[in-house]
Amino acid sequence: MAYAAKFGTKKRTGGINITPFVDVLLVVLVIFILTSNASIPGIKVDLPKASSSVALEKPKTKAITIDNAGQVFLDAYPVTLPELEERLRTEKALTPDFPVIVRGDAAVQYAKVVEVLDLLRRIDLNQIGLVTGKPA
């Protein structure tokens, strides 16, 4: 009799099995990491380096890129300065306070970047950021 009580069926203790929950959280974390890298569309340019930078990525951020040839792009689409002004005015009518980032190639002439910044001032956009690269 002592043998049956000692080696019989064991009662299961109460508790929550969290292994499936941890698995789901790890999958969600991996998906978040992969999608956070694809944030702002644009043309690849050689950015000037700065000692510190602030992230200005928001969901409705518009990216203006100026490549080394002086060509202006709005979200990876080539535009002229009048087209850029028209599109930004249209966006401002829909969303009054949207952020804009300006990405200028390190080899581009400073005057071209100033033209774009002057255009943004005329449109009365307040959330403007200049993108720089991290120092090597």
Automatic annotation (TrEMBL):
**Cellular localisation:** Cell inner membrane; Cell membrane
Q: Which domain of life is it from?
A: Bacteria
Q: What is its main location?
A: membrane
Instruction: Name the Gene3D superfamilies on file.
Output: 3.30.420.270
Q: Which GO terms describe its biological process?
A: protein transport
Q: Name one Pfam family in it.
A: ExbD
Instruction: Enumerate the GO terms in the molecular function aspect.
Output: transmembrane transporter activity
Q: What does this protein do?
A: Involved in the TonB-dependent energy-dependent transport of various receptor-bound substrates.
Name used for this protein in its record = Biopolymer transport protein ExbD
The major lineage groups are: Bacteria, Pseudomonadati, Pseudomonadota, Betaproteobacteria, Burkholderiales
